[in-house]
User: What shape does this take?
Amino acid sequence: NAGVTQTPKFRILKIGQSMTLQCAQDMNHNYMYWYRQDPGMGLKLIYYSVGAGITDKGEVPNGYNVSRSTTEDFPLRLELAAPSQTSVYFCASRPSETEAFFGQGTRLTVV
Amino acid sequence: QKEVEQNSGPLSVPEGAIASLNCTYSDRVSQSFFWYRQYSGKSPELIMSIYSNGDKEDGRFTAQLNKASQYVSLLIRDSQPSDSATYLCAVNIRAYRGSTLGRLYFGRGTQLTVWP
Assistant: This one.
């Protein structure tokens, strides 16, 4: 049972480049989340989804986009990467308003 | 007021002591509360969930919830060096009045060090 899988694990981007962080879960969870974590800080919610075709903004959505075309996948798109987007990104999923399960994270550096 | 606030820390306790971690939240209708532990460089992992007022015990961990005061805490008894980590409080928050509690917000975390 893979759980929540994030790819890639590490990435270096140049300023202005774009990329997609992938997240897939095999637990048939309805709810999925993207967070970023800066050094010494907690998790800040970027976007979330309560089901296929439904997405909504979290605390820090600017500079990011998401889509949810299937229950399993919830990709996060970064357009025009900026140094302020250097962070560790976590994807999580849960069946409803219960505990969330996390992926292993993606460490992104924008230079 | 931030949606979820934790006592700032860092917190340092000797081995065998009780560590007390606190969290307050802003949304009065929140129903689900979680404590996660995160080791450096790792993903958060669930320690406790609590949904009703009162205490919930699981081994050396006790979560306490007071919805009237919008307060949730975590006690770690007989603290061990392996408990040294960052502890994150998480709460379901409404996006707006009348919406679901789909947003899962985290506090800033409290870094705990247990010294031998």
